[in-house]
Fold:
Amino acid sequence: MNLSRMAKECGVSGPRIMLVQKSFGLPAGKTYSEGYTVLVKKLIWLRIASVPQKEITTLLSRERKLLQLLKVDSLTHSPTWFEDLCVNKFGPSRLLLSGYDLGHRTGVQTGLDFAERDSELFGSQEMGDDALRALKLCMESQEAVTARLQKEIPVLSSALKWMRKVAKEPESKKNGKTD
Structure:
């Protein structure tokens, strides 16, 4: 899909989509996958829920890093592999932004690396990249964001009730009367 269609699906303007892309370092292109759109929607919703950009950026970075350590990025050669895999599914074994299910058995074991990579002088564990450590950091960020969302529910609920009252069509217009 193109930018204008994605904007329509997200319920925002094209410039707002471009701002989200720039703010969160998402790659821009001529076409976008359904997964990319799902991720952009989640980022917009988190900002509406007053989650600070820094917290969202940290979570986004940690999810991406965790999935790289699990070699999920090697299943495709797309530069938007992370954005493309995002789904609008939630649950205790799923990551918040990508929706990736860490407990789901796939046809391919996630620890296998199918991508050709330049060899490093030291292994990733020796350099401090450890999947369990990355998972712990990712879950800490996800729990912080989720806690913030829980605190915002009453505020957003009240705001929505107020907006419904304010945006209601005046009785005079319903009856065809004008002032």
